[in-house]
Amino acid sequence: MSNSGRRWRRCWGLFGGTVLAWVLGGGFGVSPALAQTCQPAVGAQGAAPFTVWYCQGDQTGQRATARVARLLDAVWPEETRPEPNGLGPPITPEANGGRISVYVTAPNETVDTGGCTFGFCSRVGENFGVTVPTAPFLESPDARLLRSSGAIIINENIGVNDATVIHEFFHVLQFAHNVPAVSSWLGEASATWAEYRYRATDVSRVDYFRGAFQPATRSSLTRSSLNHEYGAYVWFLWLAQRAGGDRAVFQLWSALEAARSNNVAELDALVGRYLATLRLAWAGNFKGFAVEDLNRNLSGAVAPRLLFGRGASGDAAVPLNVTPRWVRPPSTLNLGTRRTAVNLPLLSAQYEHIRAISRPVGAVVVTSNRMKPWGDLVVLAHTRFGWQRRDLQNGSVTFCRRLSRQNVDQLYLIADNHDDRQNRSGASYTVTGKRTC
To answer: Is the whole-model pTM more than 0.90?
Structure first.
């Protein structure tokens, strides 16, 4: 069941006071008017400062507590390594003697993590696990929730595995940096990346890359949709690859500490400024991510020479050749001109594959129109000598097929919107098959 399409791991905040007002304002999904049904009992104490609880009378949950404790003890020292080699320790909770609470429950059991007094108890539901902000709640001067401790609830039926424990504990560590950012795409995408980083044996994370992210590359990278957010973890693979190591991911969460809400525009601005410090600004580098997301091993001649599943920062579980959805079915180029419109949300891309070129075509001309300054067109062309790459904004490139090194037999065309602030439209490109050069 861990490989099914319903591995929701949303962090739900259920608690009171100013924090409750923030929750009701859209920070996390909540289920009001739930009464506490779980009477917690200690199932296991971690060597690290956490306690694993089960609900009294629940033998399934009780049996699972020892395994959950072993899994969390195994990853705690690595996940809490000091910055910049990890996210650092969690904020010490006020309850349970300063130990993080982890509950292993049936799906519909409701747990008091601090909100039941206000009518907001917590439950795992159909999720593999959920992570809930808990006291202390550290607020800004304008009473906005910024940081907190956290508690974890694990579904005893489907969530007792290393991926869920790694993922949910990473959320607790994210809370120590910025709670609002956790409810954005960055929270789920980086927690899913943590499953790779801390070597989870459950690799069902790639199901979301295959089934949710690749079919929707024309949607914004930052789109709020759980399955999309899980699949977007590959962007963090790309970030670590391009920045030269995993520190780039951890330090991003330090940069996000300035966020005052989960507003996409505010968070994207912080991410953009952080990327600029790494010389990886969206404008010049998003096309590199789009090329890598083609997810085909073309050749070492096509920069960037990166694949999500290769290298020191690559996830070997990512299956090669799971391509994005094509803007039209792969086709043969004949004589004449084909125009393709480019209307894209912010930070998104579209892909076309011309898999063959008919014999009468003596020259192939690719022309980009009105892409500058917000977009790019990357042309990947194959000849018998291998692949070559040409980058266009506005302009054209001609391949004269009577010349051996320009005798192209297939093309990939990748158009992107690297603008992180707004959707764009009105651009296009044409591919023309001509008899002569």
So the answer is: yes
Asked whether residue 325 carries a pLDDT value surpassing 50, the answer given is yes
In terms of C-beta distances under 8 Å and separation of at least 24 residues, what long-range contacts does 330-333 make, across chains too?
A: 330/354, 330/355, 331/355, 332/356, 332/357, 332/358, 333/357, 333/358, 333/361, 333/364, 333/411, 333/431, 333/433
The H or E element spanning position 64 is helix 59-79
Model confidence over 190-229: pLDDT tens digits? 999 999 999 999 999 999 999 999 999 889 999 988 899 9
301 assigned to some structural domain: no
Q: Which residues contact 402 (CB under 8 A, 6 or more apart)?
A: 362, 437
Task: Report d(CA 247, CA 84) in Å as an integer.
Answer: 5
User: Of the residues 277, 293, 312, which one is the last residue of a structural domain?
Assistant: 277
Residue that terminates a domain, selected from 277, 294, 311: 277
Task: Give SS3 for 13.
Answer: coil
How far, in Å, CA of 153 to CA of 52, rounded? 10
347 sits in the region (left: phi over 0; alpha: psi -120 to 50; else beta) called left
Where in the sequence is the domain holding 219, given as residue range(s)?
A: 17-277
Specify if 287 maps to a domain: no
Domain check: are 222 and 341 in the same one? no
Please check whether residue 50 is in contact with residue 39, taking contact to mean a CB–CB distance below 8 angstroms.
Answer: no
